[in-house]
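Take a look at this chain, tokens included, and explain the fold to me:
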Amino acid sequence: MTKTRKIINVIWGVLMILAALILMIIPEEAYPLVIIVLGIGLAIRGITRLINYFVLSSRSVGSTRLLYDGILILDLGIFTSALVDVPVIYLMIYFAGLYFFYGVIDILSAMDSKRLESPHFKYKLLQGLMNILIAVLCIVFIKHKDIVIFIYCGGIIYNGIVKIVNAFRKTDMVFEDASVNTVDAVEEKQ
């Protein structure tokens, strides 16, 4: 990660924490703001990934995943923006689904990192478990509008802290040595 990207991540993390604290102060008016902010944020993330796909990585390995991810996130952003007039219970089910989905993805990523012997797999596993915990809390407190806002703000604060921590964490490049498997296979045939 470049120094500029690290600075941007720290700024985003701080802004996320401040926005969550402001929303916690005014929970009565926060419900429509949460919907709008979440919808716009997802739409921007989806558009960014699509631009990244078309400009930078349309011919690289694994780029199809980036395309599908961008389309899905953009669609979720547009769908979320339409939820302003929807009762809280549907929003909570939606939040629970999103957090559960990202939690499972993080856990699968942690298992893959452990297989590649990365020392940071525990951190990714903790992140996935936290997302699943937030999903469970969304289901448990599904009928309480104010608690919904606090759960969502807690998730934003957590993700802001994760952004800041990731900015200061050293990144590892893990390479899988395919030549070892090839040599073992040749020796077994002889």
Residues 27-55 form the longest helix (29 residues). DSSP finds seven helices and no strands in the chain. The radius of gyration is 20 Å. Helices lie at 3-25, 27-55, 63-81, 88-115, 121-140, 145-168, 178-189.
